[in-house]
Structures are given as structure tokens and as C-alpha cells.
Amino acid sequence: MDGVISVAANSFPKKFSDMVNYCLKSDFKNAKAINDGLMDGYDLLFAENNPAGVKAALAALGLIKNYLRLPLVPLSEKLDSKLKVYLNK
User: Fold this and answer.
1) What is the maximum alpha-carbon separation in the chain?
2) What does the pLDDT look like over 20-39, one tens digit per residue?
3) Three-state DSSP class for 7?
4) Which of 15, 23, 45, 68 gets the most CB atoms within 10 Å of its CB?
5) For the chain, where are the alpha helices, taking DSSP H only?
């Protein structure tokens, strides 16, 4: 069995799945191109704290409510806005 465990995969499921499938086919050129395209997204997800980034992304995609319990806090408004812009492109 081959696969990957990834927090980021929840935020970018199609692209991440494509990337993993390219790797499983040893097509590392296309896999790297996808990964390179996701680098800014990875940075945004983990810039402040985990799991706030992925929860904000999933909320922006309409999949969950963005609720965290203390001591965790939501992303700052500035980072949340940047993440939403990234997800919409």
C-alpha cells in the first residue's frame, strides 16, 4: 500500500491527489510542478498555527465551520484574507 498522510491534502484534495498519483507512476516532473504550485498554499496553511490554517481553508471551501477551542485561535484577518485569495485562484 502506498500513499501519504498530509494535513495540506485536505485543503487541496484534487491537486494533491494528482501529485501523489504522478509520484506513484514515477512521473516526478509533473508531481514537482504541482508541488511547486502548492508551495504558497503550504506556507499560508502553517504560517500561524496548525490546525487553524487548514480549518480556515476548509471553512472557506464551505466544508466546515471555522471553530477552534482554546488555546487554539483562528488565523489573523490578514492571513485569512490571503488564504481565501489563494484558494480562489
Assistant:
1) 43
2) 999 999 999 999 999 999 99
3) coil
4) 45
5) 8-11, 13-24, 28-46, 52-60, 77-88
Q: Which residues contact 2 (CB under 8 A, 6 or more apart)?
A: 24
Q: Is 87 left (phi over 0), alpha (psi -120 to 50) or beta?
A: alpha
Predicted local distance difference test score (pLDDT) of residue 42: 95
Q: Is the pLDDT of residue 1 over 70?
A: no
C-alpha cell at 21: 498519483
The overall pTM is greater than 0.70: yes
Cβ-based neighbour number of residue 14 at 10 Å: 9
Three-state secondary structure call for residue 43: helix
Q: 50: which 3 cell numbers? A: 496548525
Domain range annotation of the chain: 9-88
